[in-house]
């Protein structure tokens, strides 16, 4: 069955579930239940997922002070426990992310990212010393594509402020994020448990078969032509070849490690103490380290900063990768992999600004244009075509 026929069938099934949930849904009470959103909860369900390891602990009440909606529904939770839960120090300041609407479920389910954060927070995050939220529960209902993840609310617990995608970062802040990358890359270097995750090529195939990825990137080049170096204008087909080949390199030609999958600066935060962290792990995957590092540096750094810092940033990352348990290549090989890995981040943002009418508007155009300018300039500066031989 083709991907589009499969997706049409899944859309019908998910649509029936979403419609039925508006009429009647059983209140979640056990850990086996997946709530229809992040606020249709019960004390019994919260007890089942938060108190399981503390005998006698129970959630006695909870409320949500607010939330927001985007590619997922997000809501803050404030939880109160009985004496046993309080004595155990169970978390009281929490945050939920859920796939509630039909479009959220179809987009995230069709792209196979619904289980990403559950996998990260429940299986991978506990083994890494890094700045990232702590996850407490996650689950996906495969038939309805309902999903929920319950996380630490870092805005409250750490005084975190979230970074805008184009905010100017200092060199020390970029280095801090790269140390986080080195930590999770090194901790999960070439481990067999990663086989449950998709690869960069798998992710590309999922999106390309569901939506016109290549076509929307061509549209994106036209919409962003004012910020793209002149030598790249008109080369949308070649940029697409670079995207495919760069993803193949990260999938087939490099040691495998844990990848964030979408590590632009808008996925970072700054704690009250000044530490930089990474959040939004729904695109988590497995593949070569340069996928994350090239995406982050090229999209987060202004061109003049990237030019001045990038070799030393790579050296900094490689040093910490080795300390964290990874096998660091020499700087020249690392630079080659970095250059080869710049096309996918460009295409991700060209696709974003090149969206069709039926696609969600994931970012304001001014954000997309600024990031496309940064990445396209890096591709031009570093002759990424030559790095891939295309």
TrEMBL record:
<keyword id="KW-0808">Transferase</keyword>
<dbReference type="InterPro" id="IPR015897">
    <property type="entry name" value="CHK_kinase-like"/>
</dbReference>
<protein>
    <submittedName>
        <fullName>Phosphotransferase</fullName>
    </submittedName>
</protein>
<dbReference type="GO" id="GO:0016740">
    <property type="term" value="F:transferase activity"/>
</dbReference>
<dbReference type="InterPro" id="IPR004119">
    <property type="entry name" value="EcKL"/>
</dbReference>
<dbReference type="Pfam" id="PF02958">
    <property type="entry name" value="EcKL"/>
</dbReference>
<dbReference type="InterPro" id="IPR011009">
    <property type="entry name" value="Kinase-like_dom_sf"/>
</dbReference>
<feature type="domain" description="CHK kinase-like">
    <location>
        <begin position="149"/>
        <end position="327"/>
    </location>
</feature>
